[in-house]
């Protein structure tokens, strides 16, 4: 599996001088043939021109190349920003000899500064010459900003007797990191997949993975998750409701979950990965809402950092979620150690609970006992290092 | 005005041993006659039994005494908690020789531990002997937990030719401080006020003051704002829609705004008080929603601490608020220095903007240019000290 290869896809990652550090800052992902495409974009009302250009292109249903720059988010850049995003696509298309309407652009980094287009064009030219099937990691490196490590994952599966690969790369360290912003994720498969099926798999898997993690509760202007299927595997296209859809979906969700948990692990200043598991809710939406309220509470996150089994803060966050609940039915556990039973604290278990919190990862289980639905969200702790990274960083 | 006196009200604050520090931890507020009462309580689904007991009593329209303990929140304590809250009221009523149905209880502090009722009863007995017109500050001290300073305010006004006082005390350092939780506020006046008018003044003033500040975005199980009017001033009762209502309302809102800004100033780890002013919105509710989204963003708050004029984080927070807006119409200012014009960053003004952020208090003005409504919210910055207070604290 390593180095990761996805048949029919080629990659490149180069340094073109956008980052002062001289680290890689321009990536190309290229499919030998146009690939079926599905995508999810930031729901923020403030969107990068790169996102606007990408949304337009994905509507066509096919994408053949992705051009990504890191170090500059091309956000809050107005009409010029949109022109620059289009120019990135045109340049990539010219160098790769494909239709510019099949190129999706992404940008991540500093907000409010125009893109250095000459550097980017030079970078695209070099990257287009370098694209190769073995350069997955180079591309995954070039999309990073404040990330402490490169985040990639892959799974194999068998579709109608043909072998297929699902591989993904993601960048992000806060949901929106210190201006060096954004989550960008690219999931690639050589399977042939009907487009409505691709969209369904992406939506469902992202809900349970990328849309179930939080580092800082903030949303970026540039968030993008793109799923490309180029059909090089030769399988008959996977259709909705088929057995093959379930197989591919399992592989895709596993890749996205790996990547999503790596996002939390690399969360700015993160020292722990904590699953908040809410069950016994009246609906999955209510379970997730409560989970996110707990996961985003600054008081809960600082208690995790302090390794303090502070069930009071968890109960207060549950209560504040805006979901109608009966306090007297709630049980709370740190892994298997009960700390709240029927809404009442169990201070006697504190020492055992404190041992759970010393681990690098653990689960807070919230049993509402008010229905049959459940959801998990994953979060990091809130440390001195988070404040250092985000206050010391200067625009 | 100092010492603060409110005719017809008496106060006491004593130490009865709930806090290990031996600081004052029990307060009484006593009105010589039953006072018209209006109150706002936490909207959390997890409520302290003290809040439940208080909600029931305020429905009667009259309150004559308030008994408050600090050091223990009497939350997540189940049936026993409710019995204890009722017992606090009965004991205060017995010692003050009034109807137990006219006593409102409050608790603030550690969650999940039963109240030490023997200590509390002894404290109530001593406090009831000590109540005096000059002990406003003693009571304001006894309601504090992690507060760095005592927070009180007062205003005079003239109602139908009679002099009246509005005075208030508040405690709170996070919206819910480190388990030592909660905002408690008691606003007292010797004016005579019709109850519907009292409720209207409280609701309107609290919306613009207590409900427009945020330290950590968390909500407590115990939050309470109580407004009592005992009529000792001798004025004809203030009625809705009258000139007197406007006069009294101005005084009450001024007191509550003083107290609310002191809450932010005393916010855990706070080094700055920042007003987020949103205007040009389609409704005041939308303006406030955007204001709170910016005010609660961890990335914005760490940028304030780092004194970084990071307009990108502000634009990203505006976009994430879930309000439909046109990015291309937005202007953003730090005091009078423009940093975003029509949605596009103005990096050239960064040095001047950075000077504004060095101040202990400043205004971020967000001009949406999409309507005629406005709202202000006030917030603190997010510092190392916030993480220290909330992670070092042990239950």
Brief description of this entry?
Two copies of one chain form a homodimer. The first copy, chain A, is an alpha+beta fold and about 400 residues long. Chain A contains eleven helices and 15 strands.
Account of the protein in words:
The structure is a homodimer of 395-residue chains. Chain A folds into two domains: 9-265, L-amino peptidase D-ALA esterase/amidase, CATH 3.60.70; 273-392, ArgJ beta chain, C-terminal domain (Ubiquitin-like (UB roll), Roll), CATH 3.10.20.340. Helices cover 34% and strands 28% of the residues of chain A. Chain A is built from eleven helices and 15 strands. In chain A, strands 1, 2, 3, 4, 5, 6, 7 and 9 form an eight-stranded mixed β-sheet that branches. In chain A, strands 8-15-10-14-11-12-13 form a seven-stranded mixed β-sheet, sandwiched between helices. Chain A is globular, with a radius of gyration of 22 Å. Mean pLDDT of chain A is 91; it is low at 175-181.
Helix content of chain A: 25-40%
Q: Report the CATH superfamily of the largest domain in chain A.
A: L-amino peptidase D-ALA esterase/amidase
What would you call the shape of chain A?
globular
Task: Report the end-to-end length of chain A measured between terminal Cα atoms.
Answer: 40 Å
Number of domains of chain A: 2
Number of helices of chain A: 11
Interface with most residues: A-B, 69 and 70 residues
- Identify the CATH architecture of the largest domain in chain A: 4-Layer Sandwich
| Highest CATH level, the class of the largest domain in chain A | Alpha Beta
